[in-house]
Amino acid sequence: MNALGLVFSNIHDNNVPELTQDRTMGSIPFCGRYRLIDFALSNLVNSGIMKVGLITKSNYQSLMDHVGSGKDWDLARRRGGLHILPPFGLKENVLYNTRLEALRGAKNFLARSDEEYVVMTDCDNVCTLNFDKILQEHIAKNADITLVYIKRDSSEVKEVQNKMVVGLEDNGRVNAISFSPRTQGEINLYTNVCLLKRTLLQTLIADAFSHGYSHFGKDVLVRNVNNLRIFAHEHKGYYVALNSLQSYYSESLKFLDRSVRDEIFRKVDVYTKVKDSAPTRYGANAVVKNSLIADGCVIEGTVENSIIFRGVKIGRGTVVKNSILMQGTITGENVTLNAIVADKNVVVKDRRVLSGCETHPFYISKNIIV
Amino acid sequence: MIYKKKCMAMLLAGGQGSRLYALTNKIAKPAVSFGGKYRIIDFPLSNCVNSGIDTVGVLTQYQPLILNEYIGNGQPWDLDRNFGGVHILSPYQAKEGSEWFKGTANAIYQNLYFIKRYNPEHVLILSGDHIYKMDYSKMLDHHIRTNADCTIAAFKVPMEEASRFGILNVKEDGEIYEFEEKPKQPKSDLASMGIYIFKAEKLYKYLEEDEKLQGSRNDFGGDVLPRMLSLGEKMMSYEFYGYWKDVGTISSLYDANMDLLGDTPNFQVDEKSWIIRSRNPIEPPHYISDNARVVNSAIISGCEIYGTVENSVLSHNVEVEEGAIVRNSIIFSGVKIKSGAVVENSIIAEDAVIEKNAVVGGVTEDRKIAVIGGGITVSEGKTVEPGAMVEKDV
C-alpha cells in the first residue's frame, strides 16, 4: 500500500486522567498483554503500510519503551519503518495543543516522504480496520478525503464532548459536519481515522496556518465540506473509543466474550512488544472462571470475570472478581478484590478487602502498596 | 582490527531423536516443544546468552526446516550480532566431496573453518537435548583457573542409574583419570553431561588427528576424549548442582515437563535472573470459561479452555472444549480437544485433533505414556491405548 501512517499517541489523554497520569493514551495497557497503540499499529501494518510516524507530546517514555525500534510490528526497517515524532520546538508554539498544531510538527516528516497517501489514526480506539480496502474505495469514488465513521444512537454518546458527526448523501459523500449536535436517534460518528493524499494534507496544513486556524476538524474539515470531495466509510465491526475510566473498565471486560476476541484477535494478528514470560502456573487450589489470563502469572486463589495481565500473582485464599489487574500486581493471601482496576505493580497485602462498584470501578494507581 | 573471541559455543543439534518416536517424525529433537512455550534448544541458547557467550554455531542435519526457521537470525536470544551471533551449520559440499556429519566430533571437525574465523581461545561444546539452567561462564572460569586442556561438566546421578551414562572417575581435585562409557559396574556416580570446554588449539589438534585415525567413530565421548586422556592432556571435571535433564526419551521428556508444575516446582523457568528466551507467537491472553476447571497446570497465551485441565502443560492456541478432560498430559500448540474427549497420561503433538468422545491414554501401573504425532486426527469415539504411539490418523 502506497501510504504512510500518522498515529496521534497523546490525543484525548484528558479523557482518562487516571491511566494517563504517567503515560500516553497509546501506552495504556489493555486486554492482558497489549497497549492501546498496538491496535492502531497492527491495523496499519496488516494493511501493508510499512512507514509510520508516531506523534508524541508528553509522558511518552512508556510509549517509547513499548514500541522500541518497531521490531515487534515489523517496523524496524531501512526503508520506512517507525519514526517517533516528538514535539518540534517551533518558536511560536513549543508544545502543541491541537491536532493541527501536532501535524505542523510532522511537516518535515511529510515533506521527506514519498508515499502517495496518508492514513491518520488515534490510539484511543480499538477496532480492526483494513486501510487497503478503504483506499480502494477512496480511489473508486475519486475522493479527496475519506473519513471513517460508525453508526451509534445519540443516547450512547452524550457524555462525549467535541465528537464530530457527519451528514451523508446517498453515495457516501459528506455534506455536513457538526460538533456535538443535539440530534436524536442514529448519528454518524467520526472516529478520527481518515485517509487523504499526502500532498493534500501538506497543503491543508500550510493553508490553515497562513489563516491562523488551529483546529483540524472545525477549521479544516468543516470549511472544506463543499470545496473538497469528502467521503465517509462506515466501520461495521466492533469499535470502541475509550473516553473514561468507566468505559476502559466495561470495554475491557467485553473481551471475556468470545465473539469480541475472535473479531479483534483471530481475524488478523495484533502485534505487541514481546516479553519472555514463563507460562502461567495454576496451583492445586486455583479456581478460575470466565477470565482472561496473560502469561507469567501464578494463580493460587480464585479469579472470576476478570482480566489478569502478565506477571500477576494471586495468593492463596485470595478472591478476585470483576477486576482488571495490570502487569505485576501482587496480591497476598486471603485478599478480596471486587471491581478494581489496579495499575502496574500494585501490591495488595494479606487480608485486605477492596471493592468498587461495577458502574464505578475503584482505581489503584501505579506502584501503590495497599 | 583483529577480532578474537574468548569463548564461543558449538551446539550439536543434528540428532534424529529416534527415541522420541512420533514427536520427531518431522522435526529435529532440539526443536521439540517443552514446557508450554519453549523448544528444547531455547535452554542451551539462553544459557549461552546469559553466560555472556555471543557466538554460537548450531550444527543441524536431521529435518532442519523447523529448527532453522525457529532460530532464524537469532534475534529472540539477542544473537543477531555484527560479529558473532547464531549461525546454522548444515553439512555442505566441499571441493573434496561432501559428507554427512558422521559423529559428534566429525560434525565439529567439518566446521573448524567456521570456528577459526572467530579465533576463540576456548570452545564450548553443547548438546541440543538437555533441559537445564547453567552459567557456562563459571565453568569457563574453572577451566581457565585449573589450566585444563578440556573440562567436562558432570552431574551426580543415582548409583543405580549410573550404568546408563558416561561415567567420570576423578581425583580429589576433580581431575579425571578414567572414562567409563556406560559401565556395568560403575566406580563413581559422576556422569558426563555432554558439555565440554576445550582450549581451542587442543580441539583443533585432536579433531584433525581423530579424522585421520582408522576405525574411529568420530565421537567425542567414545574416541576424542579417551584419546586426549591417554596422551596425558589435563582433563578436569566441573560439577554442576542444579536441575539437569536429558530429554532424549518420551518418559524423560514427560517427567521434565511435569517438573514445572506444583506449588514449588522442581524446575523453575520464571526466574528473573536467568530468563529463558524463546521465539514467541503473538496470541491474546488465554481464556478460562465459567464451566472450566483448571488446577495444577501451566497454560500459555492463545488457549481457550472450556473443559477440565489437571496436572498438565499446555502450549499456545490449545482449545479444550466443554466437557473435555485433560489430565496428567502435555499438549503442544494448536491442538484441539473436542467435547467429551478424555486425554490422560499423554503427549499430544502440534495441531493434532482429538475428536468428540475419543479417549487417549489412561492410567496404568507402569505409567505408560501415549503419544499422538503432529497433525494427527483421532476420530470421534475412538480409543487410543495407554502407551500407544500414533503416527497415522485413527
Question: What overall geometry of chain A do the principal axes of the alpha carbons give?
Answer: globular
Instruction: Tell me the number of strands of chain B.
Output: 33
Helix content of chain B: 10-25%
Question: Which quaternary structure do these chains form?
Answer: heterodimer
Helix content of chain A: 10-25%
Please tally the helical runs of chain B, counting DSSP H or I stretches of 4 or more residues: 8
Instruction: Give me the CATH fold name of the largest domain in chain A.
Output: Spore Coat Polysaccharide Biosynthesis Protein SpsA, Chain A
Name the strands of the widest sheet of chain B in spatial order.
Answer: 5-4-1-8-13-10-14
- Number of E-type strands of chain A: 28
Gyration radius of chain B (Cα, Å) is 22 Å
User: How does the major sheet of chain B shape up?
Assistant: 7 strands, mixed
**pLDDT average of chain A, as an integer?**
91
Low-pLDDT parts of chain B are none
CATH architecture classification of the largest domain in chain A = Alpha-Beta Complex
End-to-end separation of chain A in angstroms reads 50 Å
Strand content of chain B: 25-35%
